[in-house]
Amino acid sequence: MIRELNTFLNLFLANVTPALQCIGMLWIIHIINITSGSILNALGIIPRFLPSLIWGPFLSPLLHLDFNHLLFNSTPLFFLLCILFSLGYPKALCVLLTIALYSGLMTWLFARKAIHIGASAVISGLMSFFAYRTYLNPDITGLVVVITLVYYFGSIFLSFIPTDEKTSSEGHLFGLISGYLVAVYGCPSLLMKLSTSVLQLLM
User: From the DSSP assignment, how many helices (H) and strands (E) are in the chain?
Assistant: First the structure.
């Protein structure tokens, strides 16, 4: 048990830097967006607006309404990315892209008319992804992850209940469904090849 916990901690710490880099990228994008009058929000998901289907699923998680919105998402996303990256960067990127694609498509098809932005759908997807993986293959490390997620980030589940027009409760719910689908069926081979190619170009 102690050995498994040490392994988990070592993997977590080994991925702190790339996770922080991802969070930093979101903050840079947000600062650029705010200083430009939030013009980038138009790249979010606009349900049933055909051009939005092209860019919305992949760009909407990079955009946030305000600093509070981004700050609320940054902590759970950082924690989840540290764990996700321990699976290997190609797999991690593919999981992120697939959750963004699935949740984005469902939001585009079924959500109310609005501009849907924020990383919350991806966060919800990663939570369900790890929870189902642990259900299939329970071990000490997985249980620690799930308990930590529920304890610290369980409030995200409350966002599935519509409370105000600014919260994309549909996106949160579709993210949860998407993470489950990725955990059960894996990533599409095309996205896996794309993820590998992108990382090869960047590294």
Answer: 9, 0
**How far is 139 from 136, CA to CA, in rounded Å?**
10
d(CA 56, CA 131): 27
Can you tell me the distance from the alpha carbon of 125 to that of 102, in angstroms, rounded to the nearest whole number? Answer: 10
The fraction of the chain above a pLDDT of 70, given in percent, is: 86
- Neighbour count for residue 87 (Cβ, 10 Å): 14
Residue 67: pLDDT band (50, 70, 90) is very high
Count Cα neighbours of 52 within 13 Å in the Cβ-side half-sphere. Answer: 22
Q: How many residues does the chain have?
A: 203
For residue 51, the SS3 value is coil
Query: Of 79, 67, 65, 73, whose CA–CA distance to 16 is shortest?
Result: 79
| Cα 150 from Cα 17, distance rounded (Å) | 24
Q: What three-state secondary structure class fits 155?
A: helix
Return d(Cα 75, Cα 98) in angstroms, integer.
21
Lowest model confidence (mean pLDDT) among 57-66, 154-163, 168-177? 154-163
Tens digits of per-residue pLDDT, 69-82?
999 899 889 989 99
What SS3 state is found at 179? helix
